[in-house]
Amino acid sequence: MDAGQRAVAETVARERAMAAFEPQPELGLPQTGTLVALRERRGPGRPPGARNRRAEDVAREVIERLGDPLVMLAALAMTPADELVAAGLPLAEALAEKRLAAIAVLPFLHQRKPLAVDLRNQQVVHLTISTGAEPSADSGESGCNGVVLDAAEIVENQRISGEADGPV
Fold first, then answer.
1. How many domains does the chain have?
2. Is residue 115 one of the residues assigned to a domain?
3. C-alpha angle with apex 50: 18 to 52, nearest 5 degrees?
4. Calpha distance 29→137 (Å, rounded)
5. Which of 41, 71, 141, 148 gets the highest tally of CB atoms within 10 A of its CB?
6. Are 107 and 128 in contact (CB under 8 A)?
7. Would residue 78 count as lying in a domain?
8. How far apart are CA 126 and CA 157, in angstroms?
9. H/E element holding 61?
10. Percentage with pLDDT > 90 across the chain
11. How many other CB atoms are found less than 10 A from the CB of residue 94?
12. What is the pLDDT of residues 51-75, one digit of tens each?
């Protein structure tokens, strides 16, 4: 297959691949910009999240010469405290180094658990700001179990920073 036939074959393959991503409204799926993004070519430069080639070369060189820092930290975390004490560290400092090494290695070995949020608790909170008038029976404020704030008292207790009577 010569270069011209190869170019034609690649063009046909590309068109077939793009035809698979054609909008299909009969499926009822939302027609968003994701299909357009698949068709567009990437611009110049590295894509987001891609590593710099120089940084990868330096990392590879460091690992070849000195070893993987992650492996070293894991080894330190698993080293018995007696060996670290025998190497000249005080016991408290040896235990602290083991703990810090374990903390540094932990994200590479285990994912952080997602934050659990209880959405079943639907407690209603009532906030009443009073204007200073006595609550009437039909306003619903008379049986309030919460805190009732008097707006006049709030404004009265506000101070401007820099006043002569001291810091706020």
1. 1
2. no
3. 140
4. 55
5. 141
6. no
7. yes
8. 23
9. helix 53-66
10. 26
11. 21
12. 888 988 998 999 999 999 999 999 9
